[in-house]
C-alpha cells in the first residue's frame, strides 16, 4: 500500500508474497536517471546488475560493472556497461497474434 512517505522518497518496495519483492519508482522522469542495483549474497560469486528505464528507447536497460572493487573504503566507479535492453511492451505483438479472432 502506498503512503505519503513512499511518495516523498520516490519509490516503494512491497512484498508480493512467496518469492517476489516488488519495486516501483514514482515518476522517475522528474529526477536524473534512477537505478535499481541488485546484488547477490551467496557462496556463489556473481557480478551485480543495475536497471533503469530508458524513456527515449521505451524500455529497460540492464547494466553490469566493468570494474570491480573487492574491498575498499573509498567510493568506486564501477564503470557500468549496458549488457541488455528489454523493450517495454515487447510481447504485445505476440499477444495479438495469439488472441482468438
Q: What is the C-alpha radius of gyration, as a whole number of Å?
A: 17 Å
The major sheet is characterized as: 4 strands, antiparallel
- Assign a percent range to the helix content: 10-25%
**What fraction of the residues are assigned to beta strands by DSSP?**
35-45%
Rough shape?
A: extended
- Unreliably modeled segments: none
Order of helices and strands: HEEEEEEH
Q: Give the strand order, joined by hyphens, for the main sheet.
A: 3-4-5-6
Number of strands: 6
Account of the protein in words:
The chain is extended. Strands 3-4-5-6 form a four-stranded antiparallel beta sheet, with no helix packed on it. Strands 1-2 form a two-stranded antiparallel ribbon. It is built from two helices and six strands; from the N terminus they run H-E-E-E-E-E-E-H. By secondary structure, the chain is mainly beta. A hairpin with a 2-residue loop joins strand 1 and strand 2 (20-25). The chain has helices spanning 4-9, 92-98; strands at residues 11-17, 20-25, 36-38, 49-54, 59-65, 80-87.
Amino acid at each position: 500500500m502506498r503512503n505519503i512517505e513512499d511518495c516523498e522518497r520516490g519509490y516503494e518496495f512491497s512484498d508480493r508474497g512467496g518469492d517476489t519483492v516488488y519495486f516501483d519508482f514514482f515518476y522517475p522522469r522528474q529526477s536524473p536517471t534512477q537505478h535499481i542495483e541488485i546484488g547477490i549474497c551467496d557462496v556463489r560469486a556473481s557480478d551485480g546488475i543495475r536497471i533503469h528505464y530508458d524513456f527515449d528507447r521505451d524500455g529497460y536497460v540492464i547494466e553490469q560493472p566493468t570494474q570491480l572493487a573487492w574491498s575498499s573504503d573509498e567510493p568506486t566507479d564501477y564503470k557500468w556497461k549496458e549488457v541488455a535492453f528489454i523493450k517495454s511492451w515487447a510481447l504485445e505483438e505476440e499477444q495479438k497474434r495469439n488472441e482468438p479472432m
